[in-house]
Amino acid sequence: MTASTKLYTEELRAGRWPQVRARLRPLQEWERPPDADPAELRMVEFSRHRGGLVELAEIDWYSPSEHRELVGEFIHLFGGQAPASDEKVIDFYARYGPLQERGEATDLPAWALRLEATAQERLSTEARLLMCEPLWWLRERARDLGTTYELYRALKENRLSFLRSRIGAIPQGKKLLALSISDGRIIKTVTDDDGRKVGSFSVEQLPAEEMKESQGAWRQLDDDECISWANQLLADQLVIGENRSERRWSGLLFTAGPARRGGPYGDPPTAALRLVRARSSRDLLAAMYLQLGDLVNQRALMRQCEGCNRLFFPGRTDQRFCDPHCGDAARQRAYYAERKVKPASGKKAAAKRKPRGTRAR
């Protein structure tokens, strides 16, 4: 291994962001909008090891092919029902850094655009330099990514019943104008016969006024409509990564993992440096959508681990767990759970029985 290869390897093992340190603090009340996830009341902040601030957007580029497990790890960590532990959040940020998403045509971070104007004026210097992110924002982005991947998987496996359940029906006499994804929910925008927008809603949040007007009359999309709209929605989501990236040359270190046959980068050996020309971004969120796009382009699927529910790339067709340690832990949990519910028998059971008869006076 050459000196440059060794240095590059050590830098990756130490984390992509060794020059900054992340910490978690309680979220201020004004730092979250009323509709934000109430389960996440924490903010991630960064600081230099020796003090001072630096704008992270100028530090590095992200390439989707460099960390193949990024999307699955992000969805599992921030998109689940339970909040992620402080230790796992800090570890994720130490390796990948922040999402770094700015609002369009503004210097504010994208999450700050959800706040009231008075709250935006109170933003700290760290927030304006993308040096902090609220975890409610990460949960929403993880759910959006999770829904995007579910959409692709349902289309690939031709699961029309799943697509219908996620897209839902539209009011009778109305036309579907557009689909979008917000906080993991598929939002439908409908119009009347004259093309005027009637409203936007999801399966989970049906419009009360529309229900009254249509008296509960709804129309299910047919198979062709369902597939067509789902494909368009998937394309719109993947364009997020394309719009925030550019094609460039970079030297990538391919870490351990199953070989990708037929992929655009071939099958490089483990821990090998290779010069590739691919789309890269300084926006971590865009890089994750690029990674999903690469997955769609290769017609590949991730599998959900039966032990921890993490999405992973299987190395074998019969692989059920993301790694051997997770499989061992799942088998141990199943073993002890079986022992706990197993009824007592033999001498131990007899000893536990209470003697019959009345108590002597």
Description:
- The structure is a single chain.
- This protein is an alpha+beta fold and 361 residues long.
- The chain folds into 2 domains: 3-152 and 238-312, no CATH class; 321-352.
- The protein contains 12 helices and 12 strands.
- It has helices at 3-14, 70-78, 86-96, 117-121, 125-128, 135-156, 160-167, 208-214, 223-243, 284-298, 324-341, 346-352; strands spanning 20-26, 42-48, 132-134, 170-171, 175-182, 185-191, 197-202, 218-219, 246-254, 272-280, 303-304, 311-312.
- The strands form 5 sheets. A 3-stranded antiparallel beta sheet has the order 1-2-3. Strands 5-6-7 form a 3-stranded antiparallel beta sheet. A two-stranded antiparallel sheet has the order 4-8.
Keywords:
alpha+beta; three-stranded antiparallel β-sheet; 18% strand; globular
**Major pleated sheet:** 3 strands, antiparallel
Radius of gyration: 25 Å
| Count of strand segments | 12
Based on helices, strands and strand pairing, what is the structural class? Answer: alpha+beta
Low-confidence stretches: 1-16, 49-59, 256-267
Shape call: globular
Oligomer: single chain
> Which series of helices and strands comes N to C?
HEEHHHHEHHEEEEHEHEEHEEHH
Distance between the termini: 88 Å
Mean pLDDT score, rounded? 78
The percentage of residues in β strands lies in 15-25%
Count of distinct structural domains: 2
Percent helix range: 25-40%
How many individual helices? 12
Largest sheet strand order: 1-2-3
